[in-house]
Specification:
- The structure is a single chain.
- 68% of the residues lie in helices and 9% in strands.
- By secondary structure, it is mainly alpha-helical.
- The protein has a domain at 13-100.
- The chain starts with 15 loop residues before the first strand and ends with a helix.
Amino acid sequence: MSNRGGKPSHCFNEFVHIKKDVKINQSNYLAVCRGCITVKGWTWAETEARKINMSNTVPSIGKHLSVCENFKTTYPDKVEHVKENVEARKQRTAELRTANNLKKQYQRSERTVYLIYYSYFYIFIFYIFIYLFFITMVLNITFDLL
């Protein structure tokens, strides 16, 4: 965790420079690849980062670092680290999606069961009213005959 509190730094933080004065969207800042800065210079790297809207998120940085030749030239020993983290992230995301889908399916099936129970309950009440209606009709007929 950082000294200021909040979220801890992510696994690609050492490979990018975050420009806090440039926002990509409402909550993320521009991230500039340190490999691109080293090989091509600050101006080129910042322009390239703006073109691809590279934000300070793991998916955005991971996508860039996995294809960036400048990064591979500058940090040849870290390329495998990036690939492993990108794959681990994809796997975690897939597992979370599966878990969320299962949870949603369970909630839907639970609602369906409740709807079935409510349907049977209302059918039962309906039959009771019909039965009572016919009994009162029969009783009225019999009292009219007397």
